[in-house]
Fold this sequence. Notes:
With 110 residues, the chain is an alpha+beta fold. 20% of the residues lie in helices and 29% in strands. Strands 1, 2, 3, 4, 5, 6 and 7 form a seven-stranded antiparallel β-sheet that branches.
Amino acid sequence: MKKRFSITFEITTPESAEDGDFAEIGFVEPEFGIQIPIGEIEPGAAPLMTLRQALDRLAVPFLEDCGTWFCEMDSRHDFRSGAEERRSLHPPENITGASYARLRRLVASS
C-alpha cells in the first residue's frame, strides 16, 4: 500500500483562542504519531502514510467530511492546560470522486 495520506493537527489554548488563532499547527509523523510543527517541515514535504497508519492516528469513525479532507468531530482535551487538539485526514490530491466516496463511507459518521 502506498503512503499517500497525511494528518495535520491544530492545538488551541485559551490564550490562542482569545487571539482567534491556533497555538500550534503541523503534521503527525506516521510511525510514532509524533507531532511536527509546521515550521520544522520543508515546504511540500509533508510526512505521508498509508491509510491504515492514518486511521491508527485518528478517532475513527468519528470524522466529518470537510469537502476535500476529513476532520475529527471532537477535540482531544488536556484538562490541565486547557489545550484542545483536533486532527484532520488529508487524502491524496489526485483522489478520484469514487475513491473519495468510498473513503467517506469508511471514515465519516454520517
